[in-house]
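Schema walkthrough. Field components (list of strings):
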Amino acid sequence: MEFDHILIRYGEMFIKGKNRRKFESKLQSNLIKKLKEFPSVRVSKKRERMYVLLNGTDPHPVMKKCQQVFGIHTLSFAIKVNKSEEEIKQAALYAINDAPEARTFKVSSKRADKDFPIGSQDLNHIIGGYVLSNTEGITVDVHNPDVELKVELRNGAAYITAKDYPGAGGLPVGTSGKSLLLLSGGIDSPVAGFLTMKRGVELEAIHFHSPPYTSERAKQKVLDLAGELSKYGTKVKVHIIPFTNIQQKIHREMPEGYSMTIMRRMMMRISEQLADREGILSLNTGESLGQVASQTMESMNTINEVTNLPILRPLAAMDKLEIIEVSRKIGTYNISVLPYEDCCTIFVPKAPKTKPTREKANFYESKVDFSQDIAEAINQSVVVEMDRNQTEKDEFDELL
Ligand code: ATP
Ligand code: MG
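Field assembly_structure (string):
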């Protein structure tokens, strides 16, 4: 006896009609991509259900991969057997043994095929009794069992499932459009990217790099972060923008107190132009209110002036400790804390204005023309595609 498939439950009841079809086909193709390393595994969809057919593959590594795919609520291993009492008993016993931690269980039978000679209630008793007399340390609890052993009789066969495994939740990546993530080497922006992906958004990333002030290793760190993110969805295209000239010009020609604000405005302008070129409709940052000088309400207001693309800020209302917790769970924390310098720390003024105004920023910027520098930075950008979708990802547990 062996599990032969995994039952996928997505249960986003609110998704109807056309959206539902899009949701299902994305989920199916994301699962297929994620499970590529198991050549015999197939993903099939029948009516309201999705199945991963194991075809002899070791079940647990496949389950682990499925648990990393957004859009799944819960999953269960399942066994298909003939509609015979004996086979159902054996399958039930096998399935319950996958949950050695369970102290209580109940059996719930459903009979779509009415030709089976035993009624649902009777079948519950027969199977429950068989499990009780062939296991130790587990009792029946019909109200709040640790495991619900489900027996379904339909389409001429019997399907048995036991334990529910938690899925990653969220929506399948690719069902909510695309966002351009401003990815630094810090702790916050990868978490912002992750949370955005969880809502079904595909990511491209943009990184501002200032050689020789920032090293190749600092750039590699950002690519590694993008690689980690790609494991939760689809490949992540990273646009590396040469930012040295603009930073030097700001440093030379703008008042020190405003250099940080103006640098961020330049980042937004470049990001918006790149997003337009790539057909991306929103930006995404790791900004969190009150964290540093550039993230006061006044700063956000002044920085935001230069773009009218929506800026998704999933961390805006999160505490640093909560952000760190997520970054540990998703495996980006250990990369983020590597000590390579970032373009902002090098040019950071001693006392950046915490309450900049739009008027002053516009006034200072009107003295110097940056449009040529912006166009050059975009023209000279380099694209690196990161795709580590297949790689093992042990840290991934139940996420948020
Ligand atoms: P992070 O941990 O994400 O670096 P932070 O708390 O250090 O965030 P800031 O340095 O003020 O905050 O940056 C705010 C946001 O601006 C970042 O979350 C990121 O989205 C973006 N950002 C900062 N530096 C860069 C960079 N070099 N390239 C791309 N985006 C950047
Ligand atoms: Mg930073």
